[in-house]
Amino acid sequence: MPVFINELRHGWKALIGWTLGLAVVCVVYLPFFESIAASPEMESMLESLPPAIVVGMGFDEMFSGAGYVHSSILELTALILVVIAGVGWGSRAIAGDEEEGMLELTLAHGVSRTRVLAERALAIIVRFLLLGAALWLILMASSKPFALDLGAGDTTAAVASFCALAIVIAFASLAAGAATGRKSVALGVGAGLAVAAYIANVIGRQSQDWTWLSAVSPFGWAFAEMPIMNGWDWPGLAMLTGLALVAFVVALVSFNRRDLRC
Amino acid sequence: MSTVISTSGLRKDFGQLRALDDLTLEIPQGSIFGLIGPNGAGKTTLMRVLLDILRPTAGTVSVLGENPRTAGAALRNRIGYLPGELRLDPAMSGRDHLRFWAELGDHPVAAHEEALQLAVQLDVRLTEPTRKLSKGNKQKLGIIQAFMHRPELVILDEPTSGLDPLVQQQVLGLISGARNGGATVFLSSHVMSEVEQIADTAAVLNRGRLVSVAPMHELRASAARRIRAIVRDDSSAVIAVLRRFGLELRAAAYGADETAITGVLEGKAKVLVTALAELDLVSLVIAEPDLEERVLDIYGANRANGAK
What we know:
heterodimer, A: mainly alpha, B: 308 residues, alpha/beta, Rossmann fold, Alpha-Beta Plaits, six-stranded mixed β-sheet, 13 strands, elongated
C-alpha cells in the first residue's frame, strides 16, 4: 500500500502535534473538575444563565466526572481540534494535492484513482484511531488524579463515537475535494458540516419540538446518548459509519468520472 | 512496425475552449516523436489524455494497443511520464520521492535500483528536501522517475526546459538510449532545437490542430536557409543573374568592386549554386536550415488559413 505508507511516513510529525494538542486541552481543563463540582458559586452561576444555554451547551452534565469530560473535552475542545485536523486532512488528500500539481504525476504512475483515494482515506481513519487511542490513554491516566471516576469501557465507547464523528467530517471534505478538485470547496463543506451539525444538536437539545434536529445531526449521533456515561451507542455509531461510507462512495464515483484539474 | 500511440478524431473541450480539435495521429514503435507547438497549442492536453488524466470529449485513443480510459493502472505501468510543470513535495527529499514513485509501480525494487543508478549518472543530491534543490535538479528527479521502470513508452513534456546544456545532452542521451532499447519516446517542446536534435519524426500542433507531420529530414529539407555570398561583379550584373534564375535575394555593393548577396533560400541549393557559378564567386555561406523559422512559417500559414 504505497500511498497509505507514504501518507503515514510523512504525516507522523503532524500527528504528534495534534496528540500534544489533545494533551494540552486535557491538562488545561481536567484539573478544574474537582473545584467546579465542589463549588456553590458554579451552581449559582449556572442557575443564573438562561436554561436554554445551560442545556444547549451541556453544562447541566458538568457535575459528574464523565459528564465534565463529555461537555468540556469530547464535545467541545478536543472536538474542535480533530475537526480542524480532519477538515485539513480530508481537503488535502485529493483537492489540495491536485491544486498543488502533485496528484497529476502520482496518477500518471501505475496506480488507479480508486487506490489513491482509498489508501488516503484509510490513512485518515488510521490517524484518527491513533489520536483516539492517545486521547483514551490521556483520559484514563487523568481519571484518578483529577477524581473523574471514568469507566474504561465507557470511555472507549465515547472515544469511538468521537473518532467516528471526526472521520465523518474529514470524509465530507474528502468527498467534496474529490468531486470538485478545489481545496476551498473541500474546506468549506467539511467545516460547514461540522458547524451545521453542532448548531442542529444545540437547538435540538433545547426543546421537545426540535429534538428531530438532534436526531439528524451527526453531532447528535456521536453525543446525544452520552456514551461516556451510558456505554456503546451502536445506533449512533452505525449512522456515523453509514454517513462516512456514503461520503466515501461519493468521493470514489465522482473522482473516477472527472478530469483532473491541472 | 506496430503503432504505439494512435488517435482518431480526438477532441477535447474545456468549456468553450477547444484544446484539441479533430486530432488524428499515429506514432510508430521505436521512434522518437517530437511534438512542436507554441504554448497553449494543446501539447500538454494531448499527453494528459494519453495518460487518462483528462478524458477526451470525442474521438478514440489507443496507447500500446489499449484504451487509456479502461486499461487504467496496468497500462500506465508501461508508460513513463514527465509533466511539463513538475511539482514535488517541498518537504520530501529526492530519495523519498524516488522510493515513493518506485513503490507505485509493478516492480518497486528494480525500479528503485534503476532510479538510484540514474541519480548517480545525472548527479542529483538525494538527501536534501526538494525545496532546497535548484530547478534543474528537480527536473532531473522528474526525468529519473520517467525512466526508472524502463517503460515501453516515454512521454516527456518539455523534458529539457530549465536544464543547463551539459545536462540537456545527458537527457537527450537517455532518450536515445531508451529508443535504442526498443522504447518509443513522445516528447513535446516549444523549442525547435530540442526536437531537431533528437526526433525522427516531428508534428506541429497549433491551436489543438495538427498542422503537419513529417520525418525530420523532410522538415529540414523544406526549411529555409540563410545565405550570404560575396562576388566580384558589379551589383547591376548580379541582380540580372539573380532575376534570370528566379532567386529573390538582395544584392548590394560591398567594398570597392564586390557585391554581397544575402537572403533566405527556400528549397534546393542547386539553383543558387548554378546562378553563382556564372559570377566571380569569392565566398559563400549557406547556414544550417533553421527549423525554428520553418515552424514559424507553418504556424503563420495556419493562422492565415484560419483567418480566411
